[in-house]
Design goal:
Order of helices and strands: HHHHHHH
Distance between the termini: 76 Å
Number of helices: 7
Oligomer: single chain
Largest sheet: none
Number of domains: 2
């Protein structure tokens, strides 16, 4: 009889725990509720929910609420700019062969943008190379990361060797060029 009472009590506890879990709001739901209530800054949402900004950004992007957020972990399937479509879903670092195939695409596009004088396109290709390097190294894939690192270093070396014959693309009005960077406002 005592065994039946214990089982009944344990069953009641299990039920209570399940009810508490059902009432508990997960971080994803909390982020979405806070965003829709007016808290729109990724860093504020991250602080309130105890999440990383990249997690908050990905949750908002998946929900179509903040398509302008990008960081190291943003999927290439979310377009960042007009160049994103060339890389979307085509890059990886599962193994060295995959990393090399990804790098072949990055390099081919980098060279095409260079030929066209499209510095923004080149920058995006460099950004993709750096992103893949960091993703690989921070997941412990040093051989795969080295594929991207060597390519990035070679591109930086090209610039140091005098490939710096670019005219300012910031001066769209035809005025004098300046060494000052444009305002980001």
């Amino acid at each position: 009889m005592a065994t039946r009472e214990r089982r009944g009590t344990e069953g009641g506890r299990d039920e209570q725990q399940q009810q508490r879990r059902a009432r508990r709001v997960n971080k994803k739901d909390q982020i979405l509720a806070l965003f829709t209530s007016g808290i729109g800054e990724v860093e504020d949402l991250a602080m309130i929910t105890g999440s990383r900004p990249s997690y908050v950004g990905s949750i908002l992007q998946e929900a179509g609420l903040n398509p302008g957020y990008f960081d190291l972990y943003t999927s290439t399937s979310h377009p960042m700019n007009v160049y994103s479509k060339f890389f979307a879903g085509k890059l990886g670092f599962r193994d060295e062969e995959t990393a090399r195939a990804s790098l072949e695409l990055i390099d081919r596009l980098y060279r095409q943008f260079e030929f066209a004088g499209d510095r923004a396109g080149q920058h995006h290709a460099l950004t993709m190379g750096l992103t893949m390097y960091n993703r690989a190294r921070w997941t412990g894939k040093s051989a795969e990361a080295a594929v991207f690192r060597e390519w990035l270093l070679a591109r930086l070396q090209e610039v140091e060797e005098g490939d710096d014959d670019t005219a300012s693309e910031f001066d769209e009005e035809g005025g004098e060029e300046s060494d000052a960077l444009p305002s980001l406002d």
